[in-house]
Amino acid sequence: MFASHMWRPWSPVASPAHPLTLVRGEGNRVRDTEGVWYLDGIAGALNASCGHGHPRLIEAAQRQMARLAHYDLVNASHPAAERITERLAALLPGDLGQTLLVNSGSEATEAAVRIALEYWRNVGAPRDRVVTFAAGYHGSTALALHLSGLPYTRSGWADLFPVHRVALPGSARSARTAADAAALAARFAEAFAAGPPPAAVVVEPLLNVGGGIVLPPGLLARIRALCDQYGTLLVVDEVFCGFGRTGRMFGFDHDGVTPDIVTMSKGISSGYVPLGAVTTTDAIKQSFQAEPLLRGLRYGHTTGGHAVAAAVASAVLDVVDEEGLVANAATRGATLLDRLGPLLAYPDVVDVRGLGLVVTVETVDPAVASAVVLGARDRGLLVRQQGACVMVIPPLTLTGDETAQLADTLLAAFDQVCRPAGDVRPAPVAAGRVDDPR
């Protein structure tokens, strides 16, 4: 049962009708207070890319905690922060080699927007306009919320800077067609031309909170070309997609582009310890020598670049590489998409889409999605509801057997809620308890 003293984020104030309290995680499963094990189709907070209780990540945290938990990077450096920033420089393309360490994806966006806007002031050519997706989401701090056009991100406060929000020309399903792809690219071109040259474009490679929307191939490349034409900085939000989630190391790898600024979090530390990062070029960093007060970036947090989090992040990169998790995400995601494809025949299903281990089943109504999510939970599977969408975002360590179980369980949940007329399928099995074989 949820504690009466805890205020849950992004949730109604009233206690949930179907409370769940989890007490343990092992591999790709979690257990509740009643002893029921669930296959984790949400990856914790969409960030447990290496699964739960991974011994190498626990060992890295314990080892660093015993050496030095943290020290303020304003006053001193430490090897853990130096190591992870060096490894990010080697991992990212082009001149992306200067990294600011923060605690979360929201903070990474906050820093990235500040860097982008202040860069233009530093070089003596002020710009303040930003172009982004209307259905994008970049975090819950003030600057991050201001970017989004989603209804629940609106603050009602005065605009902090001009934002041109580009809407999809049609549905999430049609966005993958050639016609909509051309129309969407044209809308970005119109946004660039609609005012002074933009300071930055801030985009996700896949619109996560906006509904698990898969963007058309080549769109990021077209946006990169527009940025080059107008001298605009390209900021790619890899908070959700980064470190293998989409079946490539970074979401922008699908289009082969190199951003000017990259934001990262979630998978960077697999959720074991909070960490976020903003990486940019040396040229952008060096422009801050012209900043009038500090001759540097006036931004930071007490625990930014926390030594334990940085040490875990380096261990995550090892696990992702040595266990082949990027390729695994591509393989398992393709299987899930294929297995769930028949749901398109269901009258209450609008679309089935995915990229890597992000698979979205869009329904006709949030009530349908809610019923499916609860039905899946009753069968031992946790998946995410995002409006009218059911989203499957499991750890990248998902096995072949677990992939089959996930697909079978979710199909059974959809069968219960919106089975096509005349379609008869076997009754689903219930969630397993501690002493049941898993």
Automatic annotation (TrEMBL):
This is Beta-alanine--pyruvate transaminase/adenosylmethionine-8-amino-7-oxononanoate aminotransferase. InterPro entries: Aminotrans_3 (IPR005814), Aminotrans_3_PPA_site (IPR049704), Class-III_PLP-dep_AT (IPR050103), PyrdxlP-dep_Trfase (IPR015424), PyrdxlP-dep_Trfase_major (IPR015421), PyrdxlP-dep_Trfase_small (IPR015422). It comes from Micromonospora sagamiensis. One of its GO terms (molecular function) is transaminase activity. It comes from the Bacteria. Its cofactor is pyridoxal 5'-phosphate. Pfam families: Aminotran_3. SUPFAM superfamilies: PLP-dependent transferases. Belongs to the class-III pyridoxal-phosphate-dependent aminotransferase family. The lineage of its organism: Bacteria, Bacillati, Actinomycetota, Actinomycetes, Micromonosporales. Keywords: Aminotransferase, Pyridoxal phosphate, Pyruvate, Transferase.
